[in-house]
Structures are given as structure tokens and as C-alpha cells.
């Protein structure tokens, strides 16, 4: 298993303070312990119809100029960049999207190890790609386009994938999404997919059963992993040899939860993921996130960090660090 994290300290429109590069360097180095480590970042395509204040609210004004850290940091110390290209225009714009992908590859392709084309296109909530007009075309045309663009630039080692939120019952149903992928010939879409990412927040947004009972965090995690591999990916003609990456996983610490509850939940989720990594071909895990977006927020998304918004480590930091340090190195 290869491990990683999102370092930026933003969750949607929540972000208390600008990132502190020095703190990020120290904390990520401490987590990685000298091992290869994946760093997740996001860039967004908005199209022409999106008001500027929406772009600003997501902190996305300068994404093609720079990411959270200086360019060279992503290529040092065994780090690998997992870059998400998110599609959230107000009106469908596939030509503009494909041009945007070219711009992203021109700007960051040389730093990138994993390129994720769209963010949770099966998840129709505001500011997530599943709510954007034309998202199915953005995904299914974007992946082959990105593969060709990378190959043309000699960047054939970059792995391309997409992410989904699972399982379907958490979303109110995503049958239409998987039915569309099922209708596509293998050669036109699934053949171009190097990995499929999973966004996994089983206890973040609704109550779960007590620890050890059916429907607890660990069992929901296991169910999500099996639902994706055994049901959804089969429908989309994506074979068992295509790895799953858990690209976002987190649990909050804010009220009514506690930092210790966050620690326990993270331990349970990681235990379930690691227990199924070989049988389900899960090769990568990335935690969301390093820092709280807003430690005083009542929103679950505000307190997903391993450290507070002022970079004080929570108990969950040591839990994740110990897992990263003690799990045998990935052979993938």
C-alpha cells in the first residue's frame, strides 16, 4: 500500500487561514518517514458562466499558477503528485474542458504521477462534479483525451483515473451513472482507465452504529469497498486488475464528536481498508486532510484534519503516522 494526504487545509468553501508551507513540510516529512508519499491537489474548470465570486470562494483563482507548495517540493523526497482536474461549470462546455486539460498537463504534467479526470461525477451535490451539466462527457471524453495529450508530451508514466463516491445508497442512488458507463464499449473508455478512486467518508455526515455493531464505521467501510469492486466496476467493464485508490478518506473531530473519536474512527477505517487491500486490489490510500479547514466550524468538513487549523497535531496524526511507518512498502 502506498500512502498520501491532501496538505492544503481547504474543504470546499471552508478555509480559516492560508497554508503555512514550513509547517506542511515538517508534518508531511514526519508522516512519510522517508517513504514514498503521495500528495493530493486540486484544480478546477469553471467555464465562462461561473461567477467570479464562486471561483474565489473555492480559493481557485491561481490554480494554474501554483498549487499549495512550490513546484519542486512535489518532486522531492519520494513525493508523488496526485492531481485532480475537477469539472464544475454552470453550463456544459466540453471543448473548453478539453482545452483546460491540455493547459493542466502543460503546466503540471512534468510533476504529476496520477491525474484524476473529474471529481466524483456520480455525486450530484453543489460544487462537486456530479452536479455539473455535461459531466458524463467530461469524464468519458476527458480520460482518452488526457491519455493522448500525455503521450504526445512524452509523459507516458502518468497514471489516469477518476473517482466516485460510494456506495450508492449513501447518495440516494447513482444507477444512471453506472448504466451510462455500462453502455460504453470497453475500448472507448474502460481501456484507458489506469485506476479508480474512491471518496470514502462513512461517518462524517450521518450517524453510524456503535463501534463493533453492524453498520459501524468499519463495516460501512468494508461494504463501500466491496460495492465498488464487486458491483459498480464490473458494470463499467473495469477489470479486477485495475487498482482501486482510496483517494479521499476522513472523519471529523468537531462537536458532537471528539478528537479521540476521530482517532478511533480513523483506526477502524484504516484497519478495514488494509484488511482488504490484496483481495480487492487496493494499492493506494490518501487521507483528507492534513489540516482542519476551520477547527471551530460546526460543519463536519471543517474538522477532517490530522492537525488543527493552527497546525497542532491531534491524536489521529500519530495513528496515521504509525500506519504509514509500519505497513510493508508497496510493490506496485
From TrEMBL:
Protein name (Swiss-Prot/TrEMBL): Uncharacterized protein
Gene3D superfamilies per the UniProt record, alphabetical: Glycosidases
SUPFAM superfamilies: (Trans)glycosidases
InterPro entries (alphabetical): GH
Amino acid at each position: 500500500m502506498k500512502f498520501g494526504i491532501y496538505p492544503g487545509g481547504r474543504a470546499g468553501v471552508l478555509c480559516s487561514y492560508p497554508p503555512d508551507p514550513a509547517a506542511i513540510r515538517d508534518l508531511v516529512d514526519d508522516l512519510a518517514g522517508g517513504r514514498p508519499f503521495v500528495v493530493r491537489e486540486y484544480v478546477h474548470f469553471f467555464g465562462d458562466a461561473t461567477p467570479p465570486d464562486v471561483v474565489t470562494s473555492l480559493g481557485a483563482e491561481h490554480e494554474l499558477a501554483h498549487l499549495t507548495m512550490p513546484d519542486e517540493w512535489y518532486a522531492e523526497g519520494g513525493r508523488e503528485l496526485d492531481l485532480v482536474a475537477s469539472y464544475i461549470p454552470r453550463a456544459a462546455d466540453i471543448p473548453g474542458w478539453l482545452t483546460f486539460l491540455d493547459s493542466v498537463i502543460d503546466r503540471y504534467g512534468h510533476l504529476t504521477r496520477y491525474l484524476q479526470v473529474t471529481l466524483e461525477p456520480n455525486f450530484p451535490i453543489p460544487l462537486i462534479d456530479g452536479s455539473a451539466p455535461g459531466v458524463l462527457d467530461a469524464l468519458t471524453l476527458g480520460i482518452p483525451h488526457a491519455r493522448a495529450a500525455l503521450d504526445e508530451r512524452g509523459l507516458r508514466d502518468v497514471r489516469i483515473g477518476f473517482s466516485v463516491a460510494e456506495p450508492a445508497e449513501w447518495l440516494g442512488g447513482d444507477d444512471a451513472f453506472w448504466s451510462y458507463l455500462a453502455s460504453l464499449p470497453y475500448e472507448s473508455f474502460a481501456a484507458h482507465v489506469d485506476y479508480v478512486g474512491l471518496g470514502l467518508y462513512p461517518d462524517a455526515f450521518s450517524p453510524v452504529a456503535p463501534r463493533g455493531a453492524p453498520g459501524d464505521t468499519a463495516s460501512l467501510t468494508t461494504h463501500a469497498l466491496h460495492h465498488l469492486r464487486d458491483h459498480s466496476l464490473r458494470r463499467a467493464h473495469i477489470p479486477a486488475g485495475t487498482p482501486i485508490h482510496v483517494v479521499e478518506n476522513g472523519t471529523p473531530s468537531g462537536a458532537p464528536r471528539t478528537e479521540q473519536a476521530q482517532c478511533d474512527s480513523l483506526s477502524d477505517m484504516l484497519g478495514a481498508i488494509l484488511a482488504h487491500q490484496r483481495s480487492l486490489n487496493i494499492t493506494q490510500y490518501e487521507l483528507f486532510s492534513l489540516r482542519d479547514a476551520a477547527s471551530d466550524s460546526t460543519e463536519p468538513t471543517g474538522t477532517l484534519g490530522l492537525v488543527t487549523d493552527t497546525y497542532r497535531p491531534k491524536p489521529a496524526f500519530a495513528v496515521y503516522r504509525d500506519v504509514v511507518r509500519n505497513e510493508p512498502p508497496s510493490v506496485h
